[in-house]
């Protein structure tokens, strides 16, 4: 017999999220909508990107936020992850919904060290 689904308010109880969701042209901040959904599912939402943050919900945000999340090994997820968790009533695998970085620069050409 399958385990009962977690109550909606505890689906993301172990998540501390920082939300940065903007319109493509950068004029509209849509973070509040996703913040509310995360809180309804039991996540904590931080107003600042601090050491407690486990997830960054990111769409067309600041390049510095992206870089900081990558440096710290924080999970960068798209808004689709929030929606899927909500509709599934479960903590869905973040790897299935990676955030896209529209500011991603071309990788630098790095000379590889030659081992002798």
Automatic annotation (TrEMBL):
All copies of domain BRCT, residue ranges: 7-99
Annotated protein name in UniProt: BRCT domain-containing protein
Species in which this protein is naturally found: Pipistrellus nathusii
């Amino acid at each position: 017999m399958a385990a009962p689904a977690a109550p909606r308010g505890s689906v993301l109880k172990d998540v501390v999220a920082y939300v940065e969701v903007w319109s493509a042209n950068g004029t509209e901040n849509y973070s509040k909508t996703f913040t509310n959904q995360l809180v309804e599912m039991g996540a904590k939402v931080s107003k600042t990107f601090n050491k407690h943050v486990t997830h960054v919900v990111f769409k067309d945000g600041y390049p510095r936020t992206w870089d900081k999340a990558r440096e710290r090994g924080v999970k960068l997820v798209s808004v689709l992850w929030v929606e899927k968790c909500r509709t599934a009533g479960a903590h869905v695998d973040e790897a299935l919904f990676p955030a896209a970085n529209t500011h991603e620069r071309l990788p630098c050409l790095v000379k590889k060290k030659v081992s002798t």
